UniProtKB/TrEMBL annotation, chains A, B:
InterPro entries: Chorismate_II_sf, Chorismate_mutase_AroQ_euk, CM_AroQ_sf_eucaryotic, CM_II_prokaryot
Pathway connected to this protein: Metabolic intermediate biosynthesis; prephenate biosynthesis; prephenate from chorismate: step 1/1
Pfam families: CM_2
GO BP, sorted A to Z: chorismate metabolic process; L-phenylalanine biosynthetic process; tyrosine biosynthetic process
UniProt-listed Gene3D superfamilies: Chorismate mutase, AroQ class superfamily, eukaryotic
CC annotations in GO: cytoplasm; nucleus
Domain of life: Eukaryota
Protein's name according to its UniProt entry: Chorismate mutase
PANTHER family referenced in this protein's UniProt entry, alphabetically: CHORISMATE MUTASE (PTHR21145)
Sequence ranges assigned to domain Chorismate mutase in this UniProt record: 145-252
Keyword set, alphabetical order: Amino-acid biosynthesis, Aromatic amino acid biosynthesis, Cytoplasm, Isomerase, Phenylalanine biosynthesis, Tyrosine biosynthesis
Length: 266, 266
């Protein structure tokens, strides 16, 4: 199913129905990855610089693996795509593949909230998602440090993509109600912009859908209701209400705040 | 949920109930990854050496990314784990982490069916899984080559882990019915071993569970029955009946054929 949004066509990329479809589809991706992650205990050691000693690096194991993954994926031009933002921009390398010519869809901007995503993922999402299932008799398992960090890479990248998709949402809204937003931006009225992009009813629907999805994807349908629960459903809902939705709105607001900046193209 | 099997404890690693739990859990992992993969079209160009030119390598893009991923993960000791087998053993590097001392669980053996897994994945699984959804008006999308290859890495690694878990199944069965298997192995009776490890009733149950899972994880529960179908359910079932189950049994048989070989430890 070609569900990936076509970012090579500005009219499709900014169609709110397409964006909505992509955002809903990304919910599945995020839930799949977090379900995979909580197979393993919290393993806090991998998040502490020096917790696992890495020759030649002072990063934590989790950060080191994320940075190396970004280095590798930058070579197959991941970070040329307008919906991908790195956590470690300094490690990126020149792509080995021919560059693609994406059309200009977004206004030039430097919004990147990955540092906040990473912090909230470690401090809020993981402890809550892992808590319910961490068995006291087990604690950390060194054997799973690598697998755990690998799952974290997938979770963080999916969260980052979902949250930075807010830029497309913001651009589409800006094009739809340009005058309203220009006024708010000129007044630097971040609260007003936040109010203009917020739809509480839709947010409630998102959380309700998340709950249903986490329950469905997190249980074994052959076992019946709640069979072999793989994830704490409420932790998934909280991840969205406390991290994904607020940070998406932050991205939208900050993107719009840069929307009127003159650029070399204008 | 600490669902990862504890391979540092031989009694747990060879407990058939634990193995069964792990195999059922790996079904979810595989289904999640294949659902992610079929977001993108087949993109056959990435599987052809030279299809995407890679400076300094004559591998296809998909193989190159898999090899580089294995190189990176070997450094965090992925391939020291007794349930992980590389597709490109020649690229592996020395781990940067302290080695773990896994106890000896399996008999020394060189069974690795990854070449066959890769071939069947490309020739049988992908065309079928992608077919139903590939839109004629779209065909390949270069913008998704990297994402597609990244999903393939996840699928292939999950399939490989699931299929090579057959070694633990075989070892547990061998320990349970040693005399029976020793006789068959001495006679080099591969057919007899295959018959001894086959339980058609269980295989039928596995396929039925797969069908339920593919349907549940592949639809949006907020939309109702079959809502926003993300994957061709029968392609997932066929992947198991034609690839996963036969190759797992091949691994079991070939492992057992090496089970009586003297080693330096004996």
């Amino acid at each position: 199913m070609d569900t990936a949004i076509d970012l090579s066509d500005p009219s499709k990329a900014l169609d709110l129905a397409n964006i909505r479809f992509q955002l809903i589809r990304l919910e599945d991706t995020i839930i799949f990855h977090i379900i995979e992650r909580v197979q393993f205990p919290l393993n806090p050691t991998i998040y502490v610089p020096g917790g696992v000693e890495i020759p030649g690096s002072d990063l934590s194991l989790a950060d080191w693996l994320l940075a190396e993954q970004e280095r590798l994926q930058s070579r197959v031009r991941r970070y040329e795509a307008p919906d991908e933002y790195p956590f470690f921009p300094r490690v990126l390398e020149k792509p080995i593949l021919q560059p693609l010519s994406y059309p200009r869809i977004l206004h030039p901007n430097d919004v990147n909230v990955n540092a906040t995503i990473r912090q909230k993922y470690l401090q809020e999402v993981l402890p809550e998602a892992c808590r319910k299932f961490d068995r006291e008799d087990r604690g950390e398992t060194k054997e799973n440090y690598g697998s755990t960090a690998t799952c974290d890479v997938m979770c963080l990248q999916a969260l980052s993509r979902r949250i930075h998709f807010g830029k497309f949402v913001a651009e589409a809204k800006f094009q739809k109600e340009t005058k309203r937003f220009v006024d708010l931006i000129k007044k630097e009225d971040r609260k007003g912009i936040d109010a203009a992009i917020t739809n509480s009813e839709v947010e409630k629907q998102v959380l309700e859908r998340l709950r249903l999805k986490a329950k469905a994807y997190g249980s074994d349908p052959s076992v019946g209701e709640g069979g072999n629960e793989k994830i704490n459903t409420e932790a998934v809902v909280a991840m969205y209400s406390q991290v994904v939705i607020p940070l998406t709105k932050l991205v939208e607001v900050e993107y719009l705040m840069q929307r009127l900046t003159a650029t070399e193209w204008e």
